Every structure is written in structure tokens, then in C-alpha cells.
Amino acid sequence: MSVNSGIQPTAALAREFEDANTFTSTTRCIKVEIQDEQLKSTHKTEIKGDENVDYAELYKILSQNIPAFLLFKQDNKKFRIIHYAPESASIKDKMVYSSSRASLEKQLGSQFFIKTDFIDDIKQFSDDANAESHPFKVVEEADKPYSEREKRLNEIDNLIKSSTSLSKVTQSIKFGWNDDVTQALNGIVNGEHNFVQCAIDIKTETIILEDKKDVELSNLKENISTVEPRYTIFKMTNGQYIFVYTCPPNSNIKSRMLYSSSATNFPSSIQTAFAINIKKKFETNDPSELTEGHITAELNPTTAGSMTAEIKFNKPRGPANRRRVIYN
Fold it and tell me: How much is the CA Rg of the chain, to the nearest whole Å?
């Protein structure tokens, strides 16, 4: 099962590609970017020379640090997708584009694309047509192996396609945190408070402090955002720690993916940095599920049966697509 961001092409992009995919069209390339959580056409180039000449000019419509898709039409009228993901692009942008490419190809028609090129350096667009690194060499000599760069990018893409959850794909990604987070975590260890909530600054890709205070376990769910993803560290009265990752389904797609990418490493880093043991990690789309009975049952499996029965009796079952995962 592949990871899909849920971002879809606009109707305008679909029409533009359909027009370009005609024998008489003079369109050479359509640039596609993600804007307002949609795949949109943001630039179009015309056929001026042969495919190698026009390919070498593509760098002019690209940014040094912003990913994009290029729907490039060859001289034989067949299209290829150029997935441009510069090394300097932010992690969140790379993730969103990687998980949106399959949707772009499928919605426009997979049968129209003969290959996908992975480019991470804008200088590659000016490579000599006879050089081994030139992308058309792979089509003309299909039996030749990929370049080392393409192998590396293909491995990343295949990992994303074969994973069942984004957190598995990106579990090695670590975001730093600021001094406020360090002080708040020191405080929870030293008993100054029992609740620390953190957010991710999307612009700097840094974990920042959202709140620190004393909270009753019975009121934990009321203190967690139902709008934006959050990380929460809570210290039980018996000294046990729990980590809660909440990700509301109506939150921004980029935010959900960014939070998911560090949901494994953040608690692991906390345990290492502060020499504590996080007894249980919870992940949910709905903070209201974090009842005192449910948390207590998970921390004390011997009483889980009676606790779970009580929860099921008092609370109707949620929608079928609601996701609640508890992981160790």
C-alpha cells in the first residue's frame, strides 16, 4: 500500500494536459506545483527546438529550493514526469511532493507517461545530451542501469510506495527543539508540573513549547488541541510517563505529514536526553478518546478487560474510518 497525501490535480490542470497531449499541440512542458493543497499548473513552455535543446532550458522555470513536477513531452509525443526535488528543499516539501506523484500520474492517466526522472540538482538540466547522466539516455538505452543519483532517489521513492504509514517511512527524521522545550521537560522530570505540550514550527521545522502546567488525568483530553496536531508528555501520579501524538483529520496536510515524521524519534530522543522511560505511547485522531479509564487500562493490562468494557458501554463506537493506534 502506497502513502498518498490526498492532494489531487485541479480540473484546469487536467484540461491543460489533455490539450497538450494532442498531436498538433506545441506544448513542450507543463510545470506542476502544490498550492492550496492542490496540484496546479503554474507554467507552460512551448516547443522551440528538439527535446534536448528544450530540456536544457527547463532550469529557467524552476526554483533552487522548491520542488516541482514537470510534465515533459518528448519529440515522439510521449510524456515523462520529471520529479524535481532539490537537496536544499525543506523536509516537509519533499515529503508532500513524494507522496503526491502517484496521484498526479494516476489522475492524468498513467498510460501517457513512459518514465519518471528524479532530479535533485538544477544543474542536471543543462547536462550535455551525450553525457551518461542525461535522462534521455535511459530511454534510448533502456537496458543500461540507473546512475548512482537515480538509484538513490528511486530507493527513497520505492520505500515511500511500499510503506503503510508515513511514520514508518520517516522514522529516522529528527527535528531539534528549542531551549523552552528543554526547560519544560526538565521541569516535568523534577516535578514542577506534569503536563508538557509541544508543537512544530512549520517554517523552521523545530519543535517548540506550546504549554506546560499541572493537569488532572481526567482533564487531559480537554487540554489537547482538536484542530492542530500536537505532541504531549504527561507524568502520571505514580511517576510513569506517557507520550501522546494527536493528529486531527481536519488539520493541514503538510502539518500532518510533518508531525508524523517525528512522532517516533521525538519520544525516543526525550528518553535518551532525560534518562526516563516512557511507559506508553498513544496516537489518535480524536483527543476525546483519551479518557482516564482508557489510559489507565492501557497502563495496567491486568484490569484492561473491565476498563474496556466500561468504555464501550458508555461511549458509542466512532466512525469506521476513525483511526486509533497504540504503539510501543
Answer: 24
Predicted structure pTM score: 0.52
Alpha carbon distances (Å) from 321 to 54, 59, 153 = 47, 43, 33
Which among 326, 224, 210, 324 has a CA at the least distance from the CA of 279? 326
Q: Establish if 55 belongs to a structural domain.
A: yes
Contact 258, 90 (CB under 8 A): no
Report the CATH number at residue 241.
3.40.20.10
Beta bridge partners of 245: 231, 283
Span 117-169, pLDDT tens digits: 889 888 888 765 555 556 665 444 443 444 554 554 554 455 444 443 343 43
Residue 88: all three cell numbers together: 536544499
Does the pLDDT of residue 320 top 80, yes or no? no
- CA–CA separation, 149 and 103 (whole Å): 24
